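User: Here's a chain of 677 residues. Predict its fold as C-alpha cells.
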Amino acid sequence: MCGISGILDATGALTPAELAGAAARMAEPLAHRGPDDSGLWADPAGNLAMSHRRLSILDLSPQGRQPMASHCGRYVLCYNGEIYNHADLRAQIEAARAYSGRPAIAWRGHSDSEILLEALALWGAEQGLKRAVGMFALALWDKRERTLTLARDRLGEKPLYYALDPQRGGRFLFASELPGIQAAPGFTARVDRAALALYLRLSCVPAPHCILAGVRKLPAAHLVSLRLSDLSTGDLPAPRPWWSLTGAVEAGLASPFAGSEAEAQDALLGLLRQSVRGQMVADVPLGALLSGGIDSSLVTALMAEQASSRGGSGSGKVRTFTIGYSDAAYDESAQAEAVARHLGCEHTTLVAGPRDALALVPKLAQISGEPFADASLLPTRLVAELTRRHVTVCLSGDGGDELFAGYNRHVHAPQLWARLSGLPVGLRGMAAGLMQGVSPRAWDRIFAALSFMLPALAKQRLPGEKLHKLAQALPARVPPAFYAALVSAWPDPGLLVPGVSEAPWALRQPGSWPSAALCPQGSTAWMQYLDAAWYLPGDILTKVDRATMSVGLESRAPYLDHRVAEFAWSLPMHMRVRSGQGKQALRGLLTRYLPPELWERPKMGFGVPLCAWLRGELKDWAQALIDPARLRREGHLEPAPVAQAWAEHQSGRFNRQYRLWPVLMFQSWLENAGISG
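Assistant: Prediction complete.
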C-alpha cells in the first residue's frame, strides 16, 4: 500500500525543478501511507511530475520502486494498492506476448506493480484493469500521447482525489488523500457548501464530491483520461466506468443461483478460499482483524485452513488481533478470543480504556484528512495501531454486511415499509412523536422489563436508539425518503447550511439504479445496492483506509474480491435473509468451522460510548468547537440548530450524538486544516 500524488501543469509557470518540487511537496502529507521509501519522476516535456510513498509488501527490493517505467519506455505508473492475481496476470502477459511474436519481458523483480504496469501497456488501461483482481488507485502517464489516466478499483477500497486548481487554471492535481492536494503550491482551500450539507446528512462525503470546492473524488470502478490540451478549457473529461456495480447487481438478480442452498454455499466457499489464498500472499508478516462476529470469524477460519494446508513448522498459526474495552457494553474481546482459541490462532487483545480513546479524538481530523463522522474510526484506528506492532498486512471482514445483507435495514426495513406504507402519513407522524417523546434510555429500561414478552427486542443492543431512528423514518411517503431517514445523521441539513441544495448522491440518482423490475424500491436488494454504491466506499472503506494507512498497515478484504461480490448478488433472497436474520449464506459456511454458540449473538457494531463522553470527558472540547460566536465568525454552520442539539443532549432526555458528531468532526477538521471562512 502506498500514497501517490502528482501535478500536470499546462500554465508553463513552473520550471522543471519547480514542477518536481511541487510533486515532492504534495507527497509529504502522505508519508504515513508509505513509510518505507519515496520516489519522484518528472517528464519536463510533458509538464508532469509524480511522487510516490511506498509501503513495501511484495518484492521489498528496489526493483519495486515507483514511479515505474514500462519495459517499452512509453508508460510510467504511480500506483497504490495490491493486485492479488499478479502471478496469473504475469503468465497471461507472457503468453499473449509469445502468441503475438513479441519478445519476452526481462522482469526486474516480482512486484505486482511491474506486472500491473505491463498489463496496462499490453492491453490498454480499461482491458488491463478488467483482468486485474485487487484494490488500487493509480495514475498512468503515456509519454508518447502525453495523456494521464487515473483509475480506481471496482468497489472503492483505495482513494483518489483530483482537482483542476481554480486559482491557476491549467494546473491539474491528484493525490491519495485531500491533504496532498492542499499541499500543492498556491492551492486555496474553500468549503463546498453543497458537499457540507451532504456530509451533515451522511457523516461522510461520498464520491465524486469533496468537502473542498473544485476537488473531486474519482468514483469506484471509474477512470478518467486527460491531455494537456484539456486543461486549457477548464472543463475536464468526465470519468467513465470500466466496471459497473449496477450491471453486477442486475446480472445477479436476472440469473439467480439455481442450485440448492448447500450447493450455493459450496460455490461461495470455493470463491472465498480463492480470495483468501490470494490475499495471504505477502513478503511481510500478515494477520487478521478479528471481532468474533460472522464476517471476520469466517475470514479467520479460512486463513487458518489455508495456513494449515501449507504445512511446515508453525502451520495453522494465524495471528489475530482485536480490541477490548473496560466498558462491557462495547466489549467483544471475549468472543474474539474464544473464536481464535477454537481455530488455533495466536491471538492478541488490546484493552483500551477511556484515556486511550479520548487521547485520540483530537487527532481524528488529521487521520481522516477530510470531515468524517463515523465514530468507529476511533476503535478501528486503535486496533490498527496495535496490529501494526506485530504485522504489516491484515485481512478483515469488511464488505460482508453490504454484500450478504447484514444490516438491520436489509432484514427488517422492507417488511416494515410494506406494512407502514398503507397507513395514513398523519397517523405515522403521531406514532413517531410518541416514540420520540420517551428517551432512549427509558425505552431500554422498558424493553428490559418486557424481555420475557419481547425476546427478539431484548437481544438488540441499545434498542431505544434503534426505536428513535425508526421514529425518524415513520413519516416517510416513499421508499427513498424512508431509506434516507434510516441513514441520515441530520434529517434536514438545510437547517445548518441554509440556501444550498445538498450535493446529489446515490439515493437521488434513480437513473443509475438497477432495473425496478429486478430490484424494486424498498426491497432488500435495493437497499443493499444503495449501501454498496455509497456507504461501503464512502464510509466503511474510507474509515478502514485512513485508520490503517495512518500507521502504515495494509488492510485487505476478501469479501470485496469482485468475483465474490458478483456471486453474492446472484444469491436468491432466502439465501440472504430468512427468519429475521441476514447473511444466511455466511452463517451456513461458518457452521462448518465454528459452533454457533461462539458467534451467534446480537450484532454490536464497532462503537464507542460517545453519548456519555459528550456529557463528560469530551464536554469542554466539544463546547469550544461549537461555541455560537465561533460558528458565526466562521460562517459555515447556523449556530441555533447546533445549540439546540447540544442542549437536548446535555439534558439527558435525548441522545444527539449522531447529529453532534458530524458537526464536531467538521469543526475539528476546519481547525486542523487551517481553514477559517
